[in-house]
Amino acid sequence: xxxxxxxxxxxxxxxxxxxxxxxxxxxxxxxxxxxxxxxxxxxxxxxxxxxxxxxxxxxxxxxxxxxxxxxxxxxxxxxxxxxxxxxxxxxxxxxxxxxxxxxxxxxxxxxxxxxxxxxxxxxxxxxxxxxxxxxxxxxxxxxxxxxxxxxxxxxxxxxxxxxxxxxxxxxxxxxxxxxxxxxxxxxxxxxxxxxxxxxxxxxxxxxxxxxxxxxxxxxxxxxxxxxxxxxxxxxxxxxxxxxxxxxxxxxxxxxxxxxxx
Length: 261
Prior knowledge:
Elements: E1 7-12, H1 18-33, E2 37-40, H2 51-59, E3 64-69, H3 71-74, H4 77-92, E4 97-102, H5 132-160, H6 175-187, H7 191-205, H8 207-229, H9 234-258
């Protein structure tokens, strides 16, 4: 009998809703202990870690992203710009499932989540239930159905995957050449060229890195648009671009270690 593949779950929430997040984690504890799921939220960032790099890495490898929807979450520019947009990009490509959980009365019908099937049943906010435990039990049952569906899909994919490191038969570029060219492009502020080089390299054998690069590419395009529309200060945009550069350099460093360069 095959061992079930743990489903990676990313929880996005506003700090003002921390108590709701803790209640959700309590109800998901049995699935976490039996390795049905692996849950990540920003509480898991260790001292000394680059918090944004860690958050992006987890977001781009998640199977499910849960959003605890409240006025506070919908009001967060960072969550909207990074977490919601990043999850939406991967959802469009069929790479993850988005599950909104309505925890406080919000204008859900006008939000980014209006086309998604949310929880609890009938989208009755958790805060309005007389018995909050009943609300979380309702949510847990809904999540279980999604998790079981994803597990079955993963098991089918594992069974049918061809043996071999490069089943597509595509010609792989030389590692060191790609890394050098990408670094040079990024240093010379040709971010788009550097990202494209790395995406072409990683799309075959480094799917996790490829997903990370997709998210970084989306963020870079959003920053360019913000600069053109002058909706943010240039200094703030430059800081965000430098963070993107550091994330790209980190990906290159990790790829070099993995390929023995």
